[in-house]
Specification:
25% of the residues lie in helices and 48% in strands. It is α+β, with helices and mostly antiparallel strands. It folds into 2 domains: 29 residues; 79 residues, Immunoglobulin-like, CATH 2.60.40. A hairpin with a 2-residue loop joins strand 6 and strand 7. The radius of gyration is 22 Å and the shape is elongated.
Length: 110
């Protein structure tokens, strides 16, 4: 009888700790963005978010004219590479937007 009670207590404790860990993970899972340029020819964007949230990656000219746009909604993580050598020489901005707000931005010279 003592063994059954002890096993139930251990199982209950493990269940509570697992539920608490999952809740903490859900609360800390926010959109994470990394914009980096490994070469002059391209720029890389990594986005990690909750599936179902809409995130837009936008590349604009210095004057704000949109040139490239990608919508990310279904995936929880996405790695994108944009080739700037296809664009004329100039200054460009890479913006990552969520709910209409810019959550990350980087200015590039091509």
């Amino acid at each position: 009888m003592k063994k059954i009670f002890l096993m139930c207590a251990i199982a209950f404790t493990m269940t509570l700790s697992t539920l608490a860990a999952n809740q903490e993970q859900a609360e800390t899972l926010k959109t994470r963005v990394h914009i980096f340029q490994t070469s002059v020819e391209s720029v890389d964007v990594y986005v990690r978010k909750e599936p179902g949230q809409l995130v837009k990656v936008l590349i604009t000219s210095q004057k704000g004219i949109p040139l490239m746009k990608t919508r990310i909604k279904k995936q929880d993580a996405r790695y994108l590479r944009y080739y700037l050598n296809e664009l004329p020489q100039g200054t460009y901005k890479v913006k990552v937007l969520q709910d209409g707000d810019i959550i990350s931005e980087m200015e590039l010279n091509n």
